[in-house]
Design brief:
With 281 residues, this protein is mainly beta. The strands form six sheets. The protein has an eight-stranded mixed β-sheet, covered by helices on one side. The chain has a single domain, classed as Lipocalin, CATH 2.40.128. Strand 12 and strand 13 form a beta hairpin. Helices cover 7% and strands 50% of the residues. The structure holds calcium ion. The site of calcium ion has 9 residues, from strand 4, strand 18 and strand 22.
């Protein structure tokens, strides 16, 4: 899967994505499992440990090694990516059929770009410490409006059925936000085996499940956001070779490929994107 990597161009991205579409209907994995069990005698509900999974690599593709990736998502046949660092932040939209860059917008100082998510025909982008969320036109990425929020902004994803945006801020809490106004409408604390799990970063919403990578680790959590329970712990270590890892930063990009069980995984300054599925260890 890794041979000829640096010769792979947009065409392969396209063919790979088409393959993902062709395989639609394989059935999405990742539905939340029962998170608690009851001790028959005492009637005590004990937390159940999460299922152990790993990221199985199916295909390796190139990724911009200068992209300090903060948000990664596919919507309406477009791969959206956002990056961070002051003066180097941008948002980009690439057509998954043609591989062509459709739009790209810089996020000027003083902002440090963070997560993005598409809500119908617009896209929300948050900033790290500025407390400002920017709504953009999903086609042109042109700014439509700005709103303020309290605290830090890390990751974003959108639950269409629940009509809410999910946001991380580096803590153990995921905040739910109104997709139109971005106002907070709820939150949930994330727990794994009864213990809090913080440093939640880039997010991906897949139906009722939220995936979150844990900052500075190769771990991705599968979370039932109904009660905050971690139902799966995914080991995504070893994707980059040691020399590649030495030049790169941490894993930070999860994009579900719609209609399939596959995901793209990448990271900050990673030279590669991986098409994976999550399988039992
Ligand atoms: Ca994502």
């Amino acid at each position: 899967m890794r041979s000829g990597l640096f010769m792979i161009g947009p065409r392969l991205l396209v063919s790979m994505l088409l393959a993902g579409v062709a395989l639609a209907g394989c059935g999405a994995s990742g539905e939340p499992t029962t998170s608690t069990k009851t001790d028959g005698e005492a009637g005590i509900v004990a937390p159940q440990p999460p299922e152990r999974l790993r990221a199985q690599v199916l295909e390796t593709l190139p990724h911009d090694p200068n992209a300090f990736t903060q948000g990664y998502e596919i919507a309406h046949g477009v791969l959206y990516e956002s990056t961070g660092r002051v003066g180097m932040s941008w948002v980009r939209a690439v057509d998954t059929t043609s591989g062509k860059e459709l739009a790209r917008m810089a996020l000027p100082p003083p902002f440090f770009g963070e997560g993005i998510t598409v809500v119908e025909d617009s896209l929300w982008q948050v900033t790290w410490e500025s407390g400002v969320a920017i709504r953009r036109d999903a086609d042109t990425l042109a700014e439509q409006k700005r709103v303020e929020y309290s605290g830090e902004g890390w990751g974003l994803c959108y639950q269409a059925e629940q009509e809410r945006v999910v946001m991380s801020d580096g803590s153990d809490t995921l905040t739910f936000r109104d997709p139109e106004t971005f106002e907070e409408i709820g939150s949930v604390q994330v727990r794994s085996g009864g213990k809090e799990v913080d440093q939640l970063n880039e997010l991906e919403c897949v139906n009722g499940t939220v995936y979150a990578n844990v900052w500075q680790t190769d771990t991705i959590l599968r979370i039932n956001v109904g009660d905050g329970t971690v139902t799966g712990k995914i080991d995504a270590s070893g994707l980059l070779t040691p020399p590649e890892q030495a030049k790169a930063d941490v894993l930070n990009g999860i994009a579900a490929i719609p209609g399939s069980e596959y995901f793209f995984l990448t990271g900050k300054l990673w030279p590669k994107t991986f098409r994976v599925r999550f399988v039992p260890q």
